[in-house]
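Office hours follow-up: a student asked to see two folded examples consecutively, so here they are.
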Amino acid sequence: MKVAHVGDIHWGLNYPGPAPDSRFKDITAAMDWVADRIIEEGCKLVLVAGDLYKDARVFLERASTEIAAAYNWLYKLGSAGIETVVISGTPSHDPVAAYELSGVRSC
């Protein structure tokens, strides 16, 4: 069985850069490529080892964008029949509420 491992994605807005969302767009594009590669390689399981988000302080004006990006990535993998396990990371990066809104079930 092929297993993919990713971690420290740090999805978030307001990184330093030419625009507040430029780094977010880079991360999203990179993770779309990663998902495509995982699917192409025929992985059956993905382990996300924490720090899915940049900041646990989820601000209302950014939260929907950040959570939607993570949700869409997880949904893409799930739609391809790939089981995905997310391990909560650093408390300063991974808010439990954001995981719940992203569709991640805790166990």
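And the second, which I mentioned at the end of office hours:
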Amino acid sequence: MSVDLTAMLAGTKYRGDFEERVKCVLHEVQRAGNVILFIDELHTIVGAGSAEGAIDAANILKPALGRDELQIIGATTLEEYRKYIEKGAALERSFQPVRIAEPTPEQSLLILRGLRERLEAHHRLHITDDALRKAITLSVRYIGDRWLPDKAIDLVDEAASRVRMQALVQP
């Protein structure tokens, strides 16, 4: 089950609203049993929802993590892990870092092939293997601040959007 902390935080007006939402999720996970939560940008649990007199998501999750009542897989960068997660000894003990290297262009091609059907259905057009290969090559060459396959996926998505829009505009 994926947890979007930003969405949980949205619309909270009063102190304690966010805490209550996090506690509800915890209760449901514990009730359901055998659930693994996925939190993208894991480092955001530190400070999420904290306001004057309120506690952040990390402090709400720590007791359940410490008692092994909760399983979480989180994604973050090494830098953000060190800055936010490692600073709290109790929080750090609850997580085991797994470093994942950027996929090679060949591995990225396999990932893109796996996503192709969904992209084709979304944009209502056919995406060739050559287009996938070019997206990988060009994203490696021109997009230096992001990683494969993410940057190639975005490039294919943008190109497909553009092709679809041009097809809709032409008389």
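Two things to take away from it. Residues 73 and 96 are 9 Å apart (CA to CA). The longest helix spans residues 150-169.
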